[in-house]
């Protein structure tokens, strides 16, 4: 019996077949055949039920192993294996988002998407000197409203308050934090309807054209603009979303 088992192992390691289930079935048949012809041993046959049980166990193990491998591949690459178009789109989408990410993490965007309830300020993204609070609607708390200083247009002068009629932070029930987020985390957040301000695909595309977003490129004298031009940002934003809104691995 030991001789037969060693021979079975040898066949298993050297058998070439692309289908794992076929491989297991062939080996079961080989093992059963060897049992009948081992020298010096009386013929012995495994019961049909035993062979069936062994085959089911081996088949289940193969399917589970394959499913874990496919799941890991999908998570790591964000593509559908074998789908050439999906693979190409995911690569282009992630590449575009890495450019989007540079803009989202720049002071012109991140200062109004802080981790806390106090907005950030300046090119170094320090806490706002006046310590205004987010408030429930994102427009400030009590008498200290964003619109008190941030008028519909920029105030004239160096480092004076920039303006826009929509000036505010995201509301307290959906803060949409950019500060401290990795590219993977931020991409997932922006594409999540329950975390992005309840925006669908079309609304996300339109958001890049919003006057408050566009104001990031005209914040007044003394402030550094985002690393991409506004038109370049819109292009990569659209590409990222239209190609599937894929998230980088990290």
Tell me about this structure:
The protein has 250 residues and is mainly α. The protein has helices spanning 2-14, 20-37, 48-77, 84-104, 107-110, 146-149, 183-191, 201-207, 211-214, 230-242, and strands spanning 120-121, 126-127, 140-141, 144-145. The strands form 2 sheets. It has a two-stranded antiparallel sheet. The longest helix has 30 residues, at 48-77. The radius of gyration is 30 Å and the shape is elongated. Mean pLDDT is 81; it is low at 1-18, 23-27 and 66-82.
Uncertain residue ranges = 1-18, 23-27, 66-82
Oligomer: single chain
The helix tally amounts to 10
- N-to-C terminal Cα separation, in Å? 52 Å
What does the main sheet amount to? Answer: 2 strands, antiparallel
Summarize the model shown.
The chain is mainly alpha-helical.
């Amino acid at each position: 019996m030991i001789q037969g088992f060693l021979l079975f192992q040898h066949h298993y390691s050297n058998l070439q077949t692309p289908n794992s289930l076929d491989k297991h079935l062939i080996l079961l048949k080989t093992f059963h055949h060897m049992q009948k012809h081992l020298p010096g041993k009386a013929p012995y046959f495994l019961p049909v039920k035993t062979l069936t049980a062994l085959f089911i166990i081996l088949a289940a193990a193969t399917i589970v192993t394959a499913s874990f491998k496919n799941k890991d591949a999908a998570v790591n690459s964000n593509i559908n294996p074998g789908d050439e178009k999906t693979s190409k789109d995911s690569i282009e989408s992630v590449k575009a988002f890495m450019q989007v990410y540079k803009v989202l993490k720049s002071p012109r965007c991140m200062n109004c998407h802080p981790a806390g309830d106090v907005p950030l300020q300046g090119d170094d993204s320090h806490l706002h000197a006046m310590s205004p609070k987010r408030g429930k609607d994102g427009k400030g708390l009590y008498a200290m409203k964003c619109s008190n200083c941030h008028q519909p247009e920029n105030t004239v002068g160096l480092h004076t308050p920039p303006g826009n009629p929509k000036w505010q932070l995201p509301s307290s029930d959906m803060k949409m934090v950019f500060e401290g987020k990795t590219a993977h985390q931020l991409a997932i957040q922006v594409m999540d309807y329950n975390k992005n301000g309840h925006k669908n695909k079309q609304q996300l595309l339109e958001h890049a054209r919003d006057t408050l977003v566009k104001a990031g490129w005209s914040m007044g004298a003394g402030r550094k603009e985002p690393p991409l031009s506004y038109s370049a940002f819109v292009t990569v934003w659209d590409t990222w979303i239209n190609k599937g809104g894929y998230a980088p691995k990290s």
